[in-house]
Amino acid sequence: MSNNSLQITDLHAKVEGTEVEILKGLTLEIPKGEVHAIMGPNGSGKSTLSKVMAGNEEYEVTSGSVTMDGEDLLALEIDERSRAGFFLAFQYPHEIPGVSNANFLRAARQARLPKGEEIDAIAFYKEMYEKMDLLGIDRKFTGRSVNDGFSGGEKKRNEILQMMVLEPKYAVLDETDSGLDIDALKIVSEGVNAMRSPERGFLVITHYQRLLDYIIPDVVHVMADGRIVKTGGKDLALELEEKGYDWVTQELAPA
Amino acid sequence: MSTAIADPAVMSAPKVESTPWLDEAPRREVSEDLPAWYLDLQNDAWKKFLDTPDPTRFDEEWRFADLKKLRFARLNPVESASAPSSIVARAQNDLTEDYAAHFVFANNELIHSEIKDLPEGATCMPINQALEEHGDLVREHFMKEERSLGGDKFAALHAAATLSGLFVHFPKGCVAEHPVVAHHYVGGELAPIFPHTLIIADENSDVTVMDNFESINEGEQSLAIGVVDLIATNGAKLQYVAYQDCSDTGAKHVQINNTRVGRDAQVKSAFINLGAAWVRNESLNRMTDNGADSQIFGASLATENQEYDQRTLQCHEAEHTTSDLLFKNALYDKARTIFGGLIQVLPGAHHTDSFQTCRNLLGSEEAEANATPGLEINADQVKCSHGSTSGQISDEEIFYLQARGIPAEKARQMISFGFLNEAVQRLDNKDVEEYISDKIDAKFRELLA
After folding, report:
1. For the stretch B353-377, what's the b/e string if a residue is b when 16 or more beta carbons lie within 10 angstroms of its beta carbon?
2. Which of A241, A246, B253, B388 has its Cβ near the most Cβ atoms within 10 Å?
3. CB within 8 A of A87, min separation 6: which ones?
4. What residues of B are in contact with residue A166 (Cβ under 8 Å)?
5. How far is B424 from chain A (nearest CA, A)?
6. What is the CATH classification number for the domain harbouring A246?
7. Sign of CA dihedral B160, B163, B165, B166
8. How many domains, chain A?
9. Residue B42: left if φ>0, alpha if ψ -120 to 50, beta else—which one?
């Protein structure tokens, strides 16, 4: 168990209340300072992995472990995981009508303060505006309801803004590239790259190699049927792109 | 047999036969030094009050209503509020961030007024004073609506009663950035108040008024019957909010808004209900000329045994008119809400756009939300929609907030707040919007702690 990584060990998980197993013994370690990518065909369990780590109650972990700098992540409540430094950028971010982005972010930051301590509103706004500027987000955005009526690109940009404001130790980006045009993809990637640091680890989940042209990974994993079936350097993404996912299903993880 | 079971009226109607809402007619107080036309109007109204039958649950306009909750043995004559200075202080501590003028009424009497920042030419004064100084305008517009959505007996009692409330007149081009705020307090056992608000917005004027209804004491049986006349013409913008946070245990509130929108004018009106034991809201909107637009919003939080009964009419009388209605109710415990809305497009009112939505957030299994949206279209090239939904907060929504570190309880508070606040955000006045948002937020913090 490492005190300096996000470590997933022989993780098994099924859909809650069924016998449908989706993660079938997944092992993966993301040391601080590294960016790992997971690629895999649809249905391989990529999104399930991200939801299980975040604590989504649609899934039940049947065995295995996830530790974050040595702390048992699975023993924590959903909100405790976030406050401990885990972040998930959602593939489909939820809309919260009637709650402004500013109030939402503020509540998330407030939740990290000791009881009785109030957030410094002026400093908070200043910081939020700086981060919005970096992502090219208009100031009017603060008063708009969270993701309500947002385009796909705006939602994903908002996920990255939330990540920047919450400054997690480990961030999992679940298909953040889906639904993005090339300009939005560049902006989102710049946001992620600006966050790269020796003190932070990333797991980038994607179906397409394209994102990895902008967020250059240190390690690429290929996932199939609930397991990691191949691990390599950034060139593995290119190889996968060239050979297609049939290569994975037929040669790397034959049924 | 099966239709009887499926009929929600049969399922939810009280089992007892309906009884009169008031056992003993209230004593009438008549003031002599009023204009003859107004005394005539009061006398006619009193007669109408006596002649109009009590509502029963068999009336379509009162379908689903639990009329037991409205019942009074009698109404006592109101007395002047004791300690008016403490009531004024309370009202001043309960103001929007900024305001154009502030009035405080307690038990039908004006106890405080402050004109802070009214545009030149605008008039804002107690309506009994306006009766003397602007008699013609009052006479032209005061309670001219002849249609009723069921509350005509209450409107008649209101008209026959002592006059209190506000007269607001914004002539051509008068614009106020901040709202006119009026507090209306009721206190004393079985005390009735009859606040009236008459707002006239002329050509290209822009005015926002908020009435704030509250009880002086908790737990007293009291009755407020408010009637509002909203008149906007020729490009005017008029916003009106009836904000109600009376005693949950004893206060009963009838609020009737009659809106008349003329050429290219816009009226936004809202009912905010955070209190009272029983509430009846009626919003009657007429779009009388090309370009008229009426937007009607509701945000209500019903808990315990509270019942909120809301009836609306969007009547399109001319071509190229629009209206949009959004009512949102959050229900907890054994609370009930009733929404009955009708969009009516009269013959010749072609090119009308009219929408109507009622959404209910059910916070308990025992809460009950009734909705009967309706459409009646007698013109061509019309865009109309109506609908109502009821639902609960989904686990997925909670998960999203929790995944950002927000505890589940706080997540529930925020989502519920947002649900009601979505209607509040449709208003165009920052002072009023923030005031209401903060109040709703505080209510949910208390309720879902």
Report:
1. bbbbbbbbbbbeeebbbbbbbebeb
2. B253
3. A162, A163, A166, A168, A170, A171, A172
4. 404-405
5. 8
6. 3.40.50.300
7. positive
8. 1
9. alpha
Does the residue A114 lie in any domain? no
Residue A58 near residue A17 (C-beta atoms within 8 A): no
Residue pLDDT, tens place only, B155-201: 999 999 978 999 999 999 999 999 999 999 999 999 999 999 999 99
* Residue where the block lists tokens 């079985």: B190
- Quick check: B211 and B184 in contact, CB under 8 A? yes
Nearest-CA distance B361 → chain A (Å):
13
B298: chain A residues, CB-CB within 8 Å: none
Distance CA B379, CA B391 (A): 34
Burial class (CB in 10 A: 0-12, 13-18, 19+), A139: exposed
Q: Among residues B81, B240, B225, which one has the least CA distance to residue B163?
A: B225
Burial bucket for residue A211 (CB in 10 Å: 0-12, 13-18, 19+): buried
Report pLDDT digits (tens) over A3-49: 899 999 999 999 999 999 999 999 999 999 999 999 998 889 999 99
Q: B57 with B63: CB under 8 angstroms?
A: yes
Q: Is B410 on the interface with A (CB under 8 A)?
A: yes
Query: Is residue A131 assigned to a domain?
Result: no
Give A97 to chain B, closest Cα distance, Å: 6
Q: Is B406 on the interface with A (CB under 8 A)?
A: yes
- A115 and chain B in contact, CB less than 8 A: no
Q: Domain limits at A174?
A: 5-93+150-252
- CA-CA distance, B420 to B329, in Å (whole number)? 7
Interchain proximity B405–A108, CB inside 8 Å: yes
Test the A interface: residue of B404, B421, B427 with most A CBs within 10 Å: B404
Cβ contact (<8 Å) for A78 and B396?
Answer: no
Does this complex have an ipTM over 0.90?
yes
Fill in the DSSP letter of residue A249: I
Domain assignment present for residue A102? The answer is no
pLDDT band for position A1 (cuts 50, 70, 90): low
